[in-house]
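Recall that a protein's primary structure is simply its ordered list of amino acids. Everything else, from secondary elements to tertiary packing, is in principle encoded there. The following example makes that idea concrete.
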Amino acid sequence: MKKQKIAVIGAKGLPSSTSGIEIYVEKVCPKLAEKFDVTVFSRKRYCSEIVKNYKGVRVIHIPSINTKHLDAISYTVFATVTALIMKYDVFWYHALGPAVTMFMPHMFSKKIISTVHGLDWKREKFGQFAARVLKHGEHCIAEYADDIIVLNRYDAGHFAEKWGRHCRIIPNGTDRAAYHEPEIISEKYGLARGEYILYMARIAPEKGLHTLIEAFIRSGSTKKLVIAGSGVHTNNYVQYVRDMAAGNSNIIFTGHVHGQEKAELYSNAYAYVLPSTIEGQSIGLLEAMSYGLPCIVSDIPENLDVIGTGGMSFHVNHAEDLAEKLRYAVENEAAVNELGRTAKAIVETNHNWERSIALTIDIISEITYGGGGNTTVEVIVICELMPSPEPYAWGRAA
């Protein structure tokens, strides 16, 4: 049987680790390419290296208008039109924004799959117009997608309740931990095992870093706070959080990290904190759990669903509550280490890349060829929705 051509649209780059979407695409698509003719449409400036083929996946670099508001939409339009001209059979969209062009392949009776990596219109970095565009993208997914994949029960419940669409829940996975002694991080930042709390995520308003910095300062912690990550089109916010931390020698910004340096930071941290106000399903959190780190997360459903009994939570956007959890963590090492061991067991059971990839391939096979492989994918019914937190005005006085 002739291999069906799949166009993957929505990831910024391949290879790239700009966000969880790129990590997801980099993990799933090479396996998918064993069965399909897979092409990822990318933007050069987000790729860690420029290649035409990545582990069997074709990479086509698409131009875009590099501004905060036009970058994503211009790339998506160009990618969709290119894929139509090149006669791709299946269009696989990632995230809400790119979905606004779904009507185009739908007009040509193409198969359409959507993976929703979170309800992006909730993200604080987007203004009213951008949020409306993202909500329209969500509407397009409900209207045009032949199948919808989500990462968590909360988003499945949202699509079921609002749009009457059933979704497939396929959680993100994570690799086995690769432990390293503190070599690079010792030389670059003077860090030793167990002496710092780690934040490893993008620097964007919805990640709640401002809440963590305020809480860390309030806590009077004897630990250091290491902030590993960078921003994409969030320069004002990056400067804002750097100004918050100015003059505090215990707060260290590393910028984006990868490879051994990233592994060393996970391997030697005392605890991991994710103070986000919205998530799809944080790969950074899953990675931290795989290293057996005790995790402190905001109490949004997307985070609570992941950590289970393997961590602590605090009220979202509540710096004093987080400060209390940080104090407790530092003062109760044995208890939080036990949480870390539980977290590691949870992630090894529930977040296996091989299983997630097999489920994804099965869905695409079912949509494309009319029959799947050997893996059964459950359709998840409506679950109870939890209220969304009010966004925190990080750049404005209370």
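The two ends are 62 Å apart (CA to CA). Residues 5 and 85 are 13 Å apart (CA to CA).
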